[in-house]
């Protein structure tokens, strides 16, 4: 450029300048340092993501094994307690504890749905699906995935409504009649969701048994379409947390579906080990595609939204906090229900289908067979206990690293005198919010009173509380909650204040005005579709 400005340009000088021209990267050091950190973050994403996925997988496995191992024992203990009541003097106490009532409800739902599943012919459904064209099966499989997410989002609300209706304090005995319609609704939900998962398993089985594997390839390519729908969207910290929970649930469900496919195929080939080696390459291919899609999706989402890889350790700490808080004496919910609300994973329909498939694939006859079943059950109980112990130990470590252990020892909220909970109110989860307005569990906390955060999409109006001098430092409510009396408009004129008061309130008012309330990761328990909130 200087050659042209001096007025004596020549081709030789231009070529010499182009060949010897230099530049200094240190003049824009901040820009290149940021680009290098982005590369390092993308390289750390697979490791940090898989840590979260593995921890979430074992959380789902623990809730799933609970249905087969400890739930039957808890139901038997509750029934034994109910049968021995005539021999005991209750003295005005309730017949069963709320947890025992919920266990009996779950057991009855499992038994009824398993009996209803006997009227569904798996073989007929398989051949009916196999007779369809490839493009029809591809469309059906996509529709089933969407329907499964919708069923999961509404199903836990149905079960929570049943549990609360069965255990809430009742003034009259005839109020217990309301449990019957809720119970019928819950039974039909679990039955329909189990049939939906059975159709998914049948479609996947048809893809495995197709000669040219074209359907299986199309189904795997459908996972990469998910990248297009997620990567180019704006994600915040909480949205990514919801999508991570959804990915954990989908991966665990895929593993169970692959197990069902292998069981059905092994039964058709008389449990030949040679056919198992034929199925394993396709199984590994499906699992590898799931892992690759999750890694690519999360790597580019964190890159485009400038989110660090350390956020996955915070997500893991939030899941660990849920596990520990549900094991306490003052827990507000059962652990399996907490996992269902957090991840959208409801184990009852999947457990009913797996029991149906196993019972139809394995013939149990003779004393030796029953002995093998007993040993297998003892092995499942052992696996459940060991898994729970390891998860509790790891969860304590994660919670201590995140400095969240002080929330575990705060007392649950007590109801105001003279106030009875509304029957239409949703199930709440007790958490202790920090004093910071942002609600971030990893920020500095000030002592405050715990509160119950509702797990429903719409919240009920909260009663007006007379302020006290000690309540002046309590953080204001989030914008998602409503109150019967609106807050005063900050734009309305106020009486003139003295200069000393104006100077003292200026910084606080500016700070409250510019702060934007954010959701705590411990409060994110909505069900998601492709990582988006359903609000």
UniProtKB/TrEMBL annotation:
Query: Subcellular localization, per the record?
Result: Membrane
InterPro entries per record: Tatp1 (IPR008010)
Compositionally biased residues, Polar residues? 421-431
Q: Where is there biased composition of kind Low complexity?
A: 446-484
Q: Which residues form a coiled coil?
A: none
| Pro residues bias locations | 489-498
Q: Name the predominant localization.
A: membrane
Enumerate the Gene Ontology biological process terms.
Answer: cartilage development; ossification; positive regulation of cilium assembly
Which membrane topology term applies here? Multi-pass membrane protein
Q: Which family does it belong to?
A: Belongs to the TAPT1 family.
| Protein name in the entry | Transmembrane anterior posterior transformation protein 1 homolog isoform X2
Instruction: Give the taxonomic lineage as stored in the record.
Output: Eukaryota, Metazoa, Chordata, Craniata, Vertebrata
Q: What gene is it encoded by? A: LOC106611550
